[in-house]
Design brief:
The longest helix has 28 residues. Helices cover 42% and strands 20% of the residues. It is globular, with a radius of gyration of 22 Å. Helix 3 packs across helix 4, helix 3 packs across helix 6 and helix 6 crosses helix 9. Strands 5-9-10-11-12-13 form a 6-stranded mixed β-sheet. A 3-stranded antiparallel β-sheet has the order 6-8-7, with helices on one face. The protein has 3 domains: 62 residues, no CATH class; 150 residues, Trna Endonuclease, Chain: A, domain 1 (3-Layer(aba) Sandwich); 82 residues, Ribosomal Protein S8, Chain: A, domain 1. The chain has 328 residues and is of the alpha+beta class.
């Protein structure tokens, strides 16, 4: 039976009615919780338990070797969100909320947008890392959702064997975690047919949510590489300016003691919105380096040319890590 765990009050309950991948109000506090398959949920718990036990063993070994008169380090006053499990909390989002409040901007956060207890982040990493090969699958699934189609058919015979194998493995993996409701592979014909899930969360993922997840993960990787362990991050931030103008920011990261980095993630057409982003950057008070338009279909040359034309930073996924490194 599907199960959920509330990130607000830690209540755990089974859910027989709401489909896997959709949200269910917590029976105790009413906070919106994502419903997961029980097997998947238990697998994740075992993974975290195993990792925690390894870390505890290392800490105990280090403690045995430490001098007896060593003083305990003072607790940090800033939220340390270097572990993914601590991201989906109000405390982790508070520094960003304070930053907006100081500028008289109201910000609304959905904590589950950075909740890595599910499989959305893992799936996004697979798609983003293999975008050159998996891009057609993403486009066709997104197109099928928009047109109301229920399935997608793939012919793999024209591909190299290693590429066809990678696509079938991806489809099986996504099916095992309920991103597809059915998966068929006809070996003689070398064809794949997947039946789409009707859950809104899965549809949003394929229609662009995967790209936001992947950019967030790239940003977290950059923070880790730069040894920045204290930060606040959010996805899908709904902001209201003093004149009641509404905007949604795809990915926001605020390193402790630094300036926010805002990344707008575009898996489709974006050029008609350039003027809107110019105004938004100025209203947020961010410099051009910290306001990024990351577009999946931009070439390196196009990104460089657009960045020279407008007071914004245009990047593709290949250029994003190096730019983030320069900011940190």
């Amino acid at each position: 039976m599907p199960i959920y765990r509330c990130n607000a009050c830690a209540y755990v309950s089974e859910e027989a009615i709401v489909p896997v991948g959709q949200k269910q109000p917590c029976a105790r506090c009413g906070h919106a919780c994502t419903v997961y398959g029980t097997v998947f949920f238990v697998e994740k718990l075992v993974e975290r338990y195993t990792a925690a036990m390894r870390e505890l063993q290392v800490l105990r070994s280090a403690g045995d070797d430490a001098p007896e008169d060593q003083e305990e380090a003072p607790a940090s006053a800033t939220v340390e969100a270097s572990s993914s499990g601590s991201l989906a909390t109000a405390e982790q989002h508070q520094p960003l909320k304070d930053w907006f409040s100081a500028r008289k901007i109201s910000a609304e956060f959905d904590l589950q947008q950075v909740d890595t207890a599910g499989y959305f982040d893992d799936a996004a990493r697979m798609l983003g890392d293999g975008l050159g090969l998996f891009g057609e699958l993403i486009d066709r699934v997104s197109f099928a959702y928009r047109k109301g189609h229920s399935s997608v058919f793939l012919e793999l015979g024209r591909l190299a064997q290693v590429d066809a194998k990678a696509i079938t493995q991806l489809c099986r993996e996504l099916y095992s975690h309920t991103f597809f409701s059915r998966y068929y592979y006809q070996k003689p014909e070398k064809t794949v047919r997947v039946t789409l899930q009707t859950a809104p969360a899965i549809r949003r993922f394929f229609e662009g949510g995967w790209f936001e997840w992947y950019v967030l993960l790239q940003t977290l990787d950059a923070l880790k590489a730069a040894n920045v362990n204290q930060f606040s991050c959010a996805r899908g931030v709904k902001v209201t300016f003093p004149n009641e103008d509404l905007h949604e920011l795809d990915v926001m990261v605020l390193p402790a003691g630094g300036s926010p980095i805002c990344v707008e993630c575009k898996s489709g057409e974006f050029r008609r919105d350039i003027e809107k982003y110019l105004r938004l950057r100025k209203r947020l008070g961010l410099n051009r380096q910290n306001f990024i338009i990351c577009a999946a279909d931009l070439t390196d040359e196009q990104a460089t040319g657009l960045s020279a034309m407008y007071e914004l930073t245009f990047l593709n996924l290949r250029l994003l890590p190096a730019h983030l490194k320069s900011l940190l």
